Amino acid sequence: MIFELCEQSRMYRLKRWFVNEKQVDENQVDEVRLSDAERLSTAPWALQLALRDDRPERPSHLAVCEAAAVAVVTLLTDPRSTEPDGEWRERVDHWQSGPIRKVVRRGRGAKFTAVEELPGVQVERRGTVVRAFVPGPTDLVPSALAKLQVGGTDQPERGEPSAPVAGTVSIALTPLTPMTTGKAAAQSGHAAQLALRAMPELARQAWQEAGWPVRVLLPDAAAWAHLVRRAPVAVHDGGFTEVAPGTRTALAWWENG
Asked: Hey, how many other C-beta atoms are within 10 angstroms of the C-beta on 232?
């Protein structure tokens, strides 16, 4: 049985491919309920990710993809996202009810420090820091976050995948279509998100207890063709950037998956 994510679909959903409120001070920003501006916005919602792209030691392509995937899962499983009265719950649910877009940005120094004050989670993997922010409309991105660059996020070194450990989710990126690091990181986040939803409870528990380890691979065409037939999770891109709509961009699997 294969589970598929269609980013261009109106609703985020799992497909069987073969079976065709919490009070806050009135002077503070209300993090529990959607604001009037958010409700009235007609812009697409997105989960924003920010890479700390320090110089001269820049993180590798694969390290960024792995950290981005872990950041997405960490935000989605945070009690503030999952509990009925969680302060992020309504925004996360609203985002997941439509196309689950992700936007990858990069910054360093004071600009990155400024966005660390915004609601979200921050992870570090192999020295690579990625922050995932609570989703919102793309026309209401906080000014500090909007200052971080979106285009040109392509790391000079490919790097090596993390070593596999117990509980690891493995993600393979397509060798058939070129993707920048930013695009590949977003696809890795999609794959991890779908794996979180698709895997059996025992596998999910093992993944969580291990600290959400993710290993991102760059297979050759032959290995990719083999994985396409076997991986339980596939991501098909909505075609908003870089690739054609429907492109199979990433696969994911786990132990016994």
From this structure: 19
**Any idea where the domains of the chain sit in the sequence?**
3-18+44-150+162-254
List the structure tokens of 95. 């985002």
Neighbours of 221 (CB within 10 A): 10
DSSP designation for 96: H
Q: Give dist(CA 169, CA 216) in Å, integer.
A: 9
Residue 46 confidence (pLDDT) above 80 = yes
pLDDT of residue 238: 82
pLDDT at 11: 33
pTM of this structure? 0.87
What is residue 3's predicted lDDT score, i.e. its pLDDT? 52
Angle at 217 between CA 211 and CA 219, to 5 degrees: 160
Residue 50, helix vs strand vs coil: strand
pLDDT in tens, 124-181: 999 999 999 999 999 999 999 999 999 778 898 999 999 999 999 999 999 999 999 9
Distance CA 237, CA 4 (A): 11
Give the β-pairing of 101-107 and 45-52. Answer: parallel
- The H or E element containing residue 51 is strand 45-52
Instruction: Yes or no: say if 212 and 67 are a contact pair by the CB < 8 Å rule.
Output: no
- Give the Cα separation of 134 and 46 in Å (integer): 9
Distance CA 77, CA 229 (A): 29
Q: Identify the CA nearest to 115 among candidates 92, 101, 132.
A: 132
Q: Tokens 């596998």, residue?
A: 203
